[in-house]
Specification:
Blueprint lengths: L3 H11 L6 E6 L2 E6 L10 E7 H4 L9 E8 L4 E12 L2 H7 L17 E15 L4 E2 L11
Antiparallel strand pairs: 1-2, 1-4, 3-6, 4-5, 5-6, 6-7
């Protein structure tokens, strides 16, 4: 489990990178999907709006391991977050994260039967400098005030 300090540090490094790549094992191959971050802060969990019909084409299941990859061009930093997938149709959460442009994809709004939230509970992180592709040891990462 990530500490509050780690969550703030992660958010500081990725808050302007709202289009991460989600990677997971889909049957016998790797699959990557661009997603859009829904929240405006990070507490250890990321939320993404998904289509149930679209999810049927992939073999992403509850409790599957996943990787989210964010790129921070300002700091020349790649942030890899490893976690566990979950799905929920919780209408209160859908209402919380709903934005008007989502109506184009889901005409029924947050009550649309095709809407589901993908929840990624983050367990581990790695950061990499680029273009050198060198890992950043935890002690060398830019610290934020607690």
């Amino acid at each position: 489990m990530l500490t509050e300090f780690q969550c703030r540090e992660i958010w500081q490094n990725i808050q302007h990178s709202h289009r991460p790549l989600l990677s997971f094992v889909d049957g016998d191959r790797l699959q990557s999907l661009p997603l859009q971050v829904l929240q405006d802060s990070f507490d250890g969990t990321f939320w993404f709006l998904m289509s149930k019909r679209q999810m049927l084409t992939w073999d992403l299941q509850v409790n599957d391991p996943v990787c989210l990859m964010f790129r921070n061009n300002d700091n020349r930093l790649d942030v890899c977050l490893y976690g566990i997938a979950n799905f929920t149709g919780d209408r209160n959460l859908l209402e919380k994260f709903w934005r008007v442009p989502f109506n184009n994809r889901f005409p029924g709004g947050p009550q649309d039967a095709d809407c589901v939230l993908l929840e990624i509970f983050i367990e581990k992180l790695e950061t990499w400098n680029y273009p050198e592709c060198l890992p950043v040891p935890p002690a060398d990462r830019k610290k934020t005030s607690p």
